[in-house]
Amino acid sequence: MKKKELINVLKNMAIKENIKALWENIKAMMKKSKYYYEKDRNLDPNKKSNTPDYYTGKVYGYKAFDIIEDYNLSYNCASALAYILRNRNKHKSPVECLQKAIDHLNNEIDCINRNQQ
To answer: What is the rounded distance in angstroms from the CA atom of residue 17 to the CA atom of residue 23?
Structure first.
């Protein structure tokens, strides 16, 4: 076997091993958090809407997605808004959602600053 052929065989073996290892990691992650991967984990099958309650306003019934779409928000701004809108409804404490919103807003500011330079 020539040197180049041997190198290619070894590269292919390494790639296959990396793919196998990656697949094993993915399977392990899915086992650890199986409910995360269920599409309708937060949905009530008896409701007409597929939007979880914590994304819908209680007074006027506005949905976070509708507001985001109407204002054509960037990913970071949309994520921040969604976290802000649900902050008192999804978890016991709003701090986690508000911190995530702040992180997304900081990322948006960084993107704006990078694009202005």
So the answer is: 10
Q: Are 47 and 61 in contact, with CB atoms under 8 Å apart?
A: no
Cβ–Cβ < 8 Å for 52, 76: no
**pTM higher than 0.85:** no
Give just the sign of the alpha carbon dihedral 12, 17, 22, 27: positive
The predicted-structure confidence for 68-107, as pLDDT tens digits, reads as follows 999 999 999 999 999 999 888 887 889 999 999 999 999 9
Q: What is the rounded CA–CA span in Å between residue 80 and residue 87? A: 10
Q: Under a CB-based contact definition with an 8 Å cutoff, are residues 71 and 78 in contact?
A: no
What does the DSSP assignment read for 46-64? T-S--S-GGGB-SSS--BH
Residues 6+ apart with CB under 8 A from 50: 40, 43
